[in-house]
Write a structure and sequence with these properties.
2 copies of one chain form a homodimer. The relative contact order of chain A is 0.12. With about 500 residues, chain A is α+β, with helices and mostly antiparallel strands. In chain A, the strands form 7 sheets. Chain A has an 11-stranded mixed sheet, sandwiched between helices. In chain A, strands 18-15-19-20-21 form a 5-stranded mixed sheet, sandwiched between helices. The longest helix of chain A has 29 residues, at about 400-425. The two termini of chain A are about 40 Å apart. Chain A contains 15 helices and 27 strands. Chain A has 3 domains: about 35-80 and about 125-290, BirA Bifunctional Protein, domain 2, CATH 3.30.930; about 300-425, Rossmann fold; about 430-505, C-terminal domain of ProRS (Translation Initiation Factor IF3). The interface between A and B is large, with 61 and 61 residues.
Amino acid sequence: MTEESMTEEICAVSPKRFENFPEWYQQVIKLADMAENSPVRGCMVIKPWGYAIWELIQKELDEKFKESGHKNAYFPMFIPLRCFENEAKHVEGFAKECAVVTHTRLQADGNGKLVPASELEEPLIVRPTSETIIGEMFSKWAKSYRDLPIKINQWANIVRWEMRTRMFLRTTEFLWQEGHTVHSTPEEAVEEARSMLKCYTDFAESFLAMPVIPGMKTESEKFPGAEDTYTIEAMMQDGKALQAGTSHFLGQNFAKSSNIKFINRDGQEEYGWTTSWGVSTRVIGGLVMTHSDDNGLVLPPNVAPVQIVICPIYNEDTRSEVLECCHRLLDELKSRMFDKHPIRIEVDDRDIRGGEKAWEWIKKGVPIRVEIGMREVTSKNVCVYRRDESPKTCKSFGFSEFVNIVGNILLDIKNSLFGRAKKFRDDNSKHISSRDEFFDYFKSEHAGFAHAHWCGDPKIEEQIKSELGVSIRCIPISDAQESNSVQGTCIFTGNPSPQEAIFARSY
Amino acid sequence: MTEESMTEEICAVSPKRFENFPEWYQQVIKLADMAENSPVRGCMVIKPWGYAIWELIQKELDEKFKESGHKNAYFPMFIPLRCFENEAKHVEGFAKECAVVTHTRLQADGNGKLVPASELEEPLIVRPTSETIIGEMFSKWAKSYRDLPIKINQWANIVRWEMRTRMFLRTTEFLWQEGHTVHSTPEEAVEEARSMLKCYTDFAESFLAMPVIPGMKTESEKFPGAEDTYTIEAMMQDGKALQAGTSHFLGQNFAKSSNIKFINRDGQEEYGWTTSWGVSTRVIGGLVMTHSDDNGLVLPPNVAPVQIVICPIYNEDTRSEVLECCHRLLDELKSRMFDKHPIRIEVDDRDIRGGEKAWEWIKKGVPIRVEIGMREVTSKNVCVYRRDESPKTCKSFGFSEFVNIVGNILLDIKNSLFGRAKKFRDDNSKHISSRDEFFDYFKSEHAGFAHAHWCGDPKIEEQIKSELGVSIRCIPISDAQESNSVQGTCIFTGNPSPQEAIFARSY
């Protein structure tokens, strides 16, 4: 870095990760200019840098969905109260936190103050999820087994009236995709729910470089109205779990409440079998808490709006020569690909101090920063900083050498971020074999994941939740073993346990 | 077409275009499976075929916006009443048709019926447009001239409580993009508003093959709160005008109501100059009414989710040979480009009757349908139907000849659709030089565009609106002449008129 560099001591995020994790998190987002709070309680503004990350996520998921035969559509955001009421558990789960539209006009009262007017006969609920309204439509579309499967995805905004909000992680309005499918057999619907879980797992690990544990939710943690809820759980750098995506096998519950019936191959009328699955802007919060460090945001290359930034270092005399060299590098790099896409690259030729500029890009998490000054122009070298390494570590490469290996460097960054996050998770996970050890483990505020046998008794879940703030994140499923069904003894009750579960505090 | 073809008489849309245009329109949308009404009053469901069209529109516009330096972001959908109230004309324009959120919970009343609970202290308005909420944020982001221009775009859903709705054209909820910018001088803001109008004009004409007239709205037709509203106006096949996109120079009106102030180069505090501009799903309605015919939807190639469909014609014996040939064609066509994108192509190998299949694709508006049977396999030919020609007109091409010229055929279809629509507009436009002639022209329900001199008196506008249902669509701007400023005499008042205006009935 140039002599005018600002030092890490001055520039790093304050507080540091392990001083105050929640405040560090807010600062990382603020310093990367990803989002900020809005005048609307609990709603954030997603600024261009944060939204560009979401667009990359959307593009990747959207391609995966389409490849697996799903089609996008759009359904009304308003749900009539009667549709919403049909599924009892569902309404129980969402009624406490929904925005209700009751009027369709504003008019001035006696004092000239605008007040709601034209009250609706039936209030409308702003979708907290769309199973009920999409179910109404599916009931018209699914007439015969020939119409099935129906495989639909929607990109939409969602509202849940949250009391305590935090940017990306929990906001009143958020963005997501929600997949909704109908099948003619339960086996096919379960297969769909599981294959979308697999899709999310691959996406989290290969695209976001975020290791996750795929598994099933317990009865008490399921989606309201689901038969089975599958989840991917990631570990944040404070040891807490984040649910990064879910996929639900809904059985015939919503088919019954929405009247989705079809004539099967035997000419009999039958209820359909449905699934739903979703990933939201929350995953961006997970991304921040998985990879970022005390210097700010760290982005894996796939999800970085800018993958390489070229910063010219010049004075008045050397300006044009240095800039020319930067643009030559830009042009050459533009023809290079990373993970099947052209590399996203920028020259930052703003007239601000080199150190300030460097720190801006560090805080924005750009994977590779290249500095080119007169020394580099003369020696035909480039000076390369990797965001996953110390901001002081610079490697020098020959101009064309760098162009040739840039894809490998990006891949290496991705792998190193994944490996680092996986190691952190492993280092902060523990197999636990007694109740005492369990309570002891979760004494620490920064406890990670506990793997332990559990007999399935929901009272245990209630107890550890109220006493320790700990929940069962999932019963893991691995590719190798269909479910983690190693017989054992419940560490809480001493009863036989069919499975290990993962326990953690969570977002 | 094959012998089992269904005849045009049976398959065409009923009613025909010129029998009952509004009903024809609904039928075209229904038969193409683009959208349908939902259980929510005034809200439609955009089905996969309709949504895929919207995605193509989004992709094209999004690229154009990004190329011209705009960045995407996302702002809350809820607007606090106080933000909304700040601009007087704006609130007047939208207060009569907005959805108001007043409660944040549902709870059971004495009879177990769910009713709204937890009333908000300040009601929230679901955005009918986002100038006010985005303005609030811009007031924090624009501190100095160095922060300007700010050029933001948002893809979002919008709610306006419409009394009479029609699919795509006017729905309570719709999808759109809204650009919002702040500039340090009025000149730069006007230039932005005009350059986005140019962007929309190019998009409409080159992408949608929809000829439009760019122009300015009169005082009474402006966006509530704008200084100037620019518009593109297209003619539908019933002669009515459709406003297909608008761009507003907002002066300092919203800057004042949202307090967007910056320090200019002279160190003085000044209000910013803002613009906004938008295109919505309404443009899909315009697309339908511009190109479609009595056989259903007609899609210009750029906006067709499938540009070429290959339909195999076979019996049990020839099935595998015919299918193999279809897939060979598919593979070869996949490497071909149209307008810089790979051609979107499908083989429809469903086991349904050939005629039924052909008519499905005709009604969906796919530009090219290729039929391959044993005769074609043997002769190494393909049988090609263009959607812009009669469904009975088939041209035979050699297999590789077709592969080589397919891009030209698509281009020719686009040009022919544009030419046809332009000719229709010219044939249905008239220069009018007297008041009597004007009233006479609009006696016909299917009158088109009248070009006539108008002195600028808004009373004339009121009168022709109430007596004829006709409005001034715009004062045209052409590239050649800055505005259509040919001096003349107002046909209504005999006063000097600085300009010709375009008069029409409209959607």
